[in-house]
Amino acid sequence: MALNRILKLEMKNISLYALSVMITQAGSFILIPIFWKTLTPHDYGIIAVTEVVGGFLSIFFGFG
């Protein structure tokens, strides 16, 4: 009886997590045409540089 209750709770948590991930990814996918129309190559360069710097710094922040 207790195992059945635990499994129901876990399934609820898993489904909530999966739903939130799908909503986030769907939102990013929907924004792609807007990005294509509004961003310039200069903007894409700024985004690329900030992602590289963020990835590099995350290594050092992970050490702490």
Question: Can you give me a brief rundown of this structure?
Answer:
By secondary structure, the protein is mainly alpha-helical. It has one domain (1-61). Helix content is 94%, strand content 0%.
Can you walk through the features of this model?
The protein has two helices and no strands. It has helices at 2-38, 41-63. With 64 residues, the chain is mainly α. The chain has one domain.
Topology of this structure?
Layout (H helix, E strand, L loop, with lengths): L1 H37 L2 H23 L1
Keywords: Membrane, Transmembrane, Transmembrane helix
Organism: Planctomyces bekefii
Protein name: MFS transporter
Order of helices and strands: HH
* Protein structure class: mainly alpha
Q: Counting H and I runs of at least 4 residues, what is the number of helices?
A: 2
Which runs of at least 5 residues are low in confidence (pLDDT < 50)?
A: none
> What is the overall shape?
flat
Number of domains: 1
pLDDT averaged residue by residue: 90
Task: Tell me how many strands there are.
Answer: 0
Tell me which oligomeric state these chains represent.
Answer: single chain
The helix content is over 70%
For the record, give the distance between the C-alpha atoms at the N and C termini, rounded to a whole number. Answer: 44 Å
Q: Report the major sheet.
A: none
| Residues in β-strands, percent | under 5%
Radius of gyration: 20 Å
